Amino acid sequence: MGAAGKLMSVQRDWRERDVRVVLVALVIAVATVATIALFASQLQRTLVTSASSFLAADRQLEAENGRPVPGEWLEEARARGLETGQMIEFSTMVFGNDRFQLVSAKAVSNEYPLRGQIEFQQQPAAPRVMRDEGPGPGEVWLNPRLLRLLDVSVGDSLEIGNRSLTITGLLVREPDGGFRLSALAPRLMMHADDVDSTGVLQEGSRVEHVYLFAGDSAALDGYYDWLKPRLEPSHEWEGVRDGETFSQSLQRAEQFLLLGGSLAVLLSAVAVAVASRQYAISQRDTVALLKTLGSPGGAIAGMYLRRLGLWGMAGILGGLALALPLYWVLANLLSEALARPVDIRVDPGALVPALLTALVSLFAFAYPPIRRLRSVPAMRVLRSQPGESGREALPDLLIAVSAMFGLVWLYARALPMVLAVFGGLLLLLGVLALIGWVLVSVLRRIRGGGQSWRLALVGLYRHRRASLSQLAVFSLTLMLAATLVLVRTSLLDDWQAQLPEDAPNHFLINIPTQTVDEIEAFWSERGYPMENFYPMVRGRLTELNGEAVKEAVSKDQRVSALNRELNMTWMESLPEDNRIIEGEWFSPGDTQGVSVEAELADKLGLKPGDRLTFTVGSDKVTETVTSIRTVQWDSMKPNFYMAFPPGGGLEGMPATWITSFYLPDNAKSILNEFSRQYPTVSVLEIDHIIARIQEIVGQVTQAIEAILVLVLAAALVVMAAVVSTTLRDRQREGALLRTLGARQALLVRSTMLEFALLGLIAGLVGTMAAEGAVWALQYGMFEGAFRWHWQVAVPIPLISAAVLAFLGRWQLLPVLRVSPMLMLRRLE
Amino acid sequence: MTDKTATPEQMDGPVLKVTDLTQQVNLEADTLTILQGVSLEINRGESVAIVGRSGSGKTTLLGLLAGLDTPSHGEVELEGRVISRLSEDERAALRARRIGFVFQSFQLLPALTALENVMLPLELAGSERADGKARELLERVGLGDRLRHTPRQLSGGEQQRVAIARAFASEPAILFADEPTGNLDNRTGRSISDLLMDLNHEQGTTLVMVTHDEQLAGRCQRRFSIEAGIVTEPGAEAHTEVVN
C-alpha cells in the first residue's frame, strides 16, 4: 500500500476522532432505524395477529344475502395458499328440558377459529380453558345464559329443528365475539356439518354465511384483488382495519411507530451531518498539503468519495451487528410482556430503510462539506486561511433539508406528519435565529453575578459560533424527542379517556318504551344507575334528494351501511363525545332535520341541506340534513348513524330503547335476576371486548415506551457526539485556564453552568417547536384538541440542562486529572 | 485575591528557591530520571535563562518551577511558599496572582479575539476593568488596531505579542517563558525578545526563560545550563547553587 493508499484506510481513519464520531453516528443511525423497523414490523405482526383474533381470521368475507358464496371462491383461496374456514350464523328456536327459546346460533367448520382461541368450560363450575376448535359434529355448546334460561345441564340433549344435539360444554367467549346485534340473543355454537340436517334453514331464512381467511398479507391482498370484481353489494370483505371497535387505536399506534422511526432517522442524520462537517474542517490541512504535493482536486475528491463508501459499508455492517441482537432482546421483552411467544423474524424489507438511511446520511449530509474540500487552497499550507462562512454551507443546508424530507417521506409516507415535523423545524430555526441575536447582543452586556456565572455567560458569548450550532443540534434533537414524548402522552391519555376503568361494559337492548322507567329503577336500587336511554328505530336509507339511493350513489361508493338497517334515534342534546363538524345541532323546540354521522356522510357525499328519505317498516320519512357529526365508535356507548330531534321525523315510529352501563365482575349475578324479570330485554355483555382492547392498548403502550427509550437514547448519543466535536478546543481551553490560575472548582462550576444554560435554552426551544409540531400532527392525524403539556414542557428543559451539564463536566475530566502542562503538550 | 503587592517577607530573599529537585517518570521496565538534584535560587527582578538541547529537561524544569506539575523529590519555594506542598487549587490561585506564562506555541484560544485572550487571566483574577487593561496592554505590544482579530488572522509574531500581553496582564511577580522565540524567524524573534525584556524591565518582573537561543540567553542577567537533567550555572560563583 502506497502512502496515498494508507491515507485512505479505514484503520487509519479510525484513529481520527471526527471519523470515529461519523462512524459511530452512522452505526447508531443504521442500528436505530433497523431496530425500530424490525421491532415495528414485529409489533405489526403481533398486533395484527392479536387483532385478527377479533375476526377469528385475518380477513372475513360476509355474505349477507343468505346464500353461500360459489365454491370456486374458496378453492381459489386455498390454491393461493390461504387457510379457509366457514361459519353460518342464524336465529332459530331451540327446545330443551320442555322449554322453547329463541337463540342466535353459530355453526362452525372444523378449521374455526383460524386466529385466536375459544374460551370454554366443561361444566358451569369448571375452570375456563382455551380451545383451538369448536364443537364436533353432533355436539352443541351453549353460553351460560342460555343454559340458565333453558335450565339444562351438560350431557342433556337439545333439539334444533329436526336434529337432537348433545350439550358437551359451555361457550364462554368466542374470539370473534364482536359487537353485533345477532349476538344479542342467547347463544349456541354447533358444527357446520349439522346445519343441513336440522332443516331450520329454508329459502328466505335470515342467515349470514361468513368465510374466514388466514395467510400472509401478500397472498391475502392478491386474493382480494382477484375476488373484488366478483363481489356483490351484499358481500363484505372485512380486514382488521375496517370498522372494528379498536381500529382507531391500532391505526394511531401504527402512526406512532412510523413517527418514532422517522424521528430516529432525523436524529441520526443530524449526528452524521455534525460529525462530517467537523471532519471536513479537520481535513483542510491535509488537503492543502496533498495539493502542494501535486494532487489534483479531482483525485482528492475521488479519494474522499471512496472513503465515504468505505465508511458507509463499515457503518452498515456495524449498525446491523448492533441492531440484530437489540431487536432480539426487544422482541423477547415483548414476548415476556405478552406472556406468549412472539414470532421473531428478521424481515429483510424492514432493513431497507436502514440501508437507505446510511446512504442518504452519507451522501446528503456527510458529502457536501467533504466535497468542498477540493477547493481548499494549497496556500493554506503556508498561511492559515479564514474558515468557511455560512454562505458556503447554505446549499448544504438545502440538500440536507430536502434529504430529511425525503427520508421522512420514505419512512412514514404521511404528508401531514412530514409537514408537521418540518413546520416544527421552521419554528425552531426562527427561534434559534432570535436566540443567536440575543447571544450576540445581550449576553456580553450582562454584568454582575458570581464569578462562575460570569465566566459561564462570557463562555457562551465567546463560543457563540460553536454554541449556536450546538444549540441548533441540541434543540433539534430535543424537539424530535419531545415530539415523540408528547405524542405518546396524548396518545395514552386519549386511550385512557376513551376506555376509563368504568367504561360501559354492558348494553341493554330492545327495552320496550313502557318499561324504561322500571328498568332504570331496577338498576338504581342495586347501585348501578343508567346514564342515558336512547330510543332506537331501525330503518333503511332509500332516497337521496328524491333519487333512489342505489342510483344516486355509484357502485364503488356503495357502503355496507346501506345494505343493513341503520340505527336511528332521536335526542335532545348532542352526546358528550360527539362533535358537530358541519351545520348546527337542533335548537330546543326544533322538530325538523336529521344529523348524520360524519364517515357515512363522507362516503355518501352528504352535506347539510341534502334531503334523505328513510323507510321504517312500511312508513317513509323525509328530512333535511341539518348537521354532520363525528361519533366515537370505540366509546362503548350507544352510537347512531342518524339522529333526529325529539318530536321529529321518527315521532310515532315503533321504537325500542337502548342503554349502556358499567357492571363490575362481582355484580354479574344481578343479570340473572334481571333476565328473569325482563325476559324480552337483551343484555349484551361486552366486558371481554373491553378487556381485549385494553390488552391491545397495553401491548402498544409497551412498544411505544420501548421505541421512546430507543429514540431518547439516540438523542443522548447525538448530544454526546455534538459535545465531543468541540472536545479538543474545550480541553485546551480548560488546560490553559488552569495554567492561568483558574481553580478546579471555578472551572467545573462555570463549565457546568455554561452547558446547563445551553441545555436549558435548547430544551425550551426544542419543546416549543415540538408543541408546534404536535399541534399540527394532532390536527392532521391524531384527533384531539391542542393544549400545552406542562408535564413535558417543564421537565425536558430541566433534564436537558442536567444532561448537558453532566456532559460538560465529563469532557473536563482529563483536564482536571492531568497536570495542565502535560495537557497543553498533549493537545499541541 | 487582587492584591498584587508582595508582603515584606516576600520582598526579602530569593523569589524562587529550588532545593534538590528531582523528577522521575516510571516507565514499564525502569525509571527515567528527567531532572536530578537541581538546586538554585533566583532573586527578585532578575532575568534568568535556562539553556539546553532538546530533551535535556528544561521545559520539565520550567513546569515544576511554575507549579504546573509536582516534583518526585525536592522543593520549589516561590516567594517563601513551598509550592510543591500546596494543593492544586492553591497553586492555581498562586499562578493567577503571581505568575505569567509565554509559550513557544503561543497557546492562544482560537475562538477568542486578541482582546478576549488578554482579558482571560484578568477575568479569572476577578478584575473589574479587564477590558480596559487588556486594551492598554495590546496597545503597548503594538496591536491596538488588531483587538478584534482572532489568532487565525494574526501572524506568528503578532500571536506571540498577544501572548506576551496576556502574560503581563495579571502583573505577575515571575514570568516564565518557554522558548518564546522558538517558532519565529530571527527578526521577529528579536523584536519579541526586545518586547519581553522591555516589559520585564518596566514592570520589574522576574523573568525565567527556557531557550536554546544563545543570543537570547545572552541578554539575560544569569544563565543556567541543563544537560541530561543536571543544571549548572557556568562562571557565576556569587549566585550559584549548583549541581551534582
Helical/strand content category of chain B: alpha/beta
Order of helices and strands of chain B: HEEEHEEHEHHHEHEHEE
Q: Strand tally of chain A, please?
A: 22
In CATH, what is the class of chain B?
Alpha Beta
Gap from first CA to last CA of chain A: 30 Å
Number of strands of chain B: 10
In DSSP terms, counting alpha (H) and pi (I) runs of 4 or more, how many helices of chain B? Answer: 8
Percent strand of chain A equals: 15-25%
Helix-strand makeup class of chain A: alpha+beta
CATH structural fold name of chain B: Rossmann fold
Give the percentage of residues in beta strands of chain B. Answer: 15-25%
User: Any idea what the CATH architecture of chain B is?
Assistant: 3-Layer(aba) Sandwich
Distance between the termini of chain B: 39 Å
- Write down the overall geometry of chain A: elongated
Q: Which spans of chain A have pLDDT < 50 for at least 5 consecutive residues?
A: 179-184, 241-245
Q: What value does the Rg of chain A take, in angstroms?
A: 34 Å
| Widest sheet, order of strands of chain A | 2-3-9-6-8-7
Q: What oligomeric state do these chains adopt? A: heterodimer
Largest interface: A-B, 31 and 32 residues
> How many domain modules of chain B?
1
